[in-house]
Amino acid sequence: MMMRQGPVRRGNRRGVILIVVIGMLSLLALVGVTFAFATQAGLETVRRLTANPDIDGPLRAAVQISEDVVEAARRTAEFGAESLRTGSADRGATSALKGRYTRIYADAADLEAELRDVERTTTDPAARRVLCLTLQSLSGVKVSAAKAVELLDTLDPDD
């Protein structure tokens, strides 16, 4: 069977790009959720290991970030389904998602600074190891949020 050779029509290319971006966004959302819950679990473990009241604020922040990441993943799935159904990305929805992921990144960066302070005052070796892993998970949240914004920029670069 011979396939037709020739230039790719612009409309087809745009559709392929949309599908690829939606797929990558979906994967990033899943990865972000995984990292967010790992961060939260790590902080709960540190709290149990140290009984340090300084961890309560960061733990509440981690719970909020987890909830925000789950909501962003839900909205990303809705955005992807709607974009694939219509064949294009809604600019308002794209902008809203970029804003949501930008806030998640900023909140994760703030939490990272708080955890660095807790890390400096933590002496328990097990708690320090868990904090190190927790900071790595938090870094994963930041990276996935930043990459989501970059991908969304490919759909709506003017925003």
Explain what this protein looks like in three dimensions.
With 159 residues, this protein is mostly helical. It has one domain: Up-down Bundle (Four Helix Bundle (Hemerythrin (Met), subunit A)). It is 84% helix and 0% strand. The chain contains four helices and no strands. Helix 1 packs antiparallel against helix 4 (125-155), helix 2 (56-86) runs antiparallel to helix 3 (91-121) and helix 3 (91-121) runs antiparallel to helix 4. The radius of gyration is 19 Å and the shape is elongated.
Write a compact overview of the structure shown.
By secondary structure, the protein is an all-alpha fold. It contains four helices and no strands. It is 84% helix and 0% strand.
The largest sheet is: none
Number of domains: 1
The whole-number mean of residue pLDDT values reads 87
Beta-strand percent range: under 5%
What order do the helices and strands follow? HHHH
User: How many beta strands in the DSSP annotation?
Assistant: 0
Question: What's the helix and strand layout?
Answer:
Layout: H1 10-50, H2 56-86, H3 91-121, H4 125-155
Supply the key terms:
159 residues; mainly alpha; Four Helix Bundle (Hemerythrin (Met), subunit A); 84% helix; elongated
